[in-house]
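User: Run a structure prediction on this.
Assistant: Running it now.
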Amino acid sequence: MELTPPPASLKDVPVERIAPSGNTVQKTIEFGKNCQIKFVLHNTQQYNNLLSMKGFGEAVRELRTAQNLGLRETASKVGISPAYLSRVERGKEPPPSAEVIKELARVLAADPDVLFRLSSSTDPEITGYLRGHPNALSFLRLLMDQKFSSMEIERLKVLTVEIVRSRDCGA
């Protein structure tokens, strides 16, 4: 099933660019000269690898060693004690606060959503958005109740980009 009509001309064909942006990868879709939609891509390989691990601490240790960072150096950059980080990595402490999880993700060049999922916690920005937008919460409930598959959710993401394009670019 085609989600969007074919372009009327080559100028209507979106150009996609993917480039590093800080600790994330950003995808830009350009619809002509004056219209760009930018969003952060999640590292799906990292996501799948980390979700297969036993827990939050193991994932943090794996990310830290992959970045060739020592325990003390990482703790210092995150603003926590090395002893606390060690206990978290060994599973002796529960996952830290949302602020520390976000900082760990930044320092370790990780997808914060993966760390939040492993911590059984939710990013406070997402929670705040849902509180301020009850329709978004109702929409999530609908997706759950109707048992939307991953493929169907991906299709919704494509439609969302089209809506943003229409809104922001007047297309």
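Confidence is low (pLDDT under 50) at residues 1-13.
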